[in-house]
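Minutes, project check-in

Agenda point 3 was the complex the collaborators sent over. CS summarized: two entities, 315 residues total, and the question is how they sit relative to each other. Sequences were read into the notes so everyone works from the same version.
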Amino acid sequence: MTAGRTTIAPTVVEKIAALAAAGTPGVLRLEPGAGALATALRHRLQAHLPGTGLDGAPPAAGVRATVAGDQAAIEVALTVELGQPVAAVAARAQRSIARAVTELTGLAPASIAVTVVDVAPLQERQAREGPG
Amino acid sequence: MAMSSVEDLYRLPCGRDANTLWDHVVAGLLDAHEQSCLHCRAAESGFRALAEATSALARLDATPPPRLTARIMRAVRAEARLGAELPVTSTGLGPIRITAQAAAVVLRFAADQCNGVVARSCAITPAENGYDIRLTIAVRYGTAAPAAAEHVRRLVRAAGRDLIGFAVNHVDVDVTDLLEQQP
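CS then shared the predicted structure for the full assembly.
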């Protein structure tokens, strides 16, 4: 093995977790809090406004991760499709996040906390996120 | 379902309208309730950060993305609800929680499946063996209220178990209105 060190930034874990969670059957979408959305907006503005003072990639909305040693703690906020069993969908999201994070980062997911902040009918996604 | 009306989408758990709060935050004029209410304050702190970001957007003289307002409102609703999280279960990987508001959507939806019943408010409180539910409903004229309430009780208990994943202890049903016409 070659000498050297690999580190994984929390943002990387967040993005992997976000993709895994959003792709879980029964999950309608992730839910950024207002603070996370504001941060994401500022990151988008950064391209246009000099001196906004933000470094690195924008965080993945709806996911927060901390990395300590070879372990990652992850918190996810999401909306579940109305009619789907909430606890089962959330547990499925946990497993899918754990798999993706372990496989792609080598970090052990010490804790994956899932909070279901909304339950909405499937057509709401089409109505709200359709063209327009 | 009552929840899906546009007004309700923008209503904070305390009953305040998020659009009004947004206007007050941007204007820098918060009233007494907004200064003391936990829900308003949670939304306000998010709003303030967003107001800064969007005023920077405005300075760019660019049109904000068309769905930005909807995204902001959703974020604020998510934020405002973070206060009341109910533990559902814990897997080997970590805890699973649901906000009281999201759980109420599921339970009201279940109650609405009862013929002649329209679910109104739904309060959820932790109890020793699960959660106690207090539901207010309106019944259509011609529906026998006690039987409907009993049916609602069964539907809500089943929905708690099967659709959310938590145990439901008591289900108190308050019949608070009579609907004289089909909506």
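Noted in discussion: Chain B touches chain A through 49 residues (CB under 8 Å).
Follow-up: revisit at the next meeting once the mutant set is ready.
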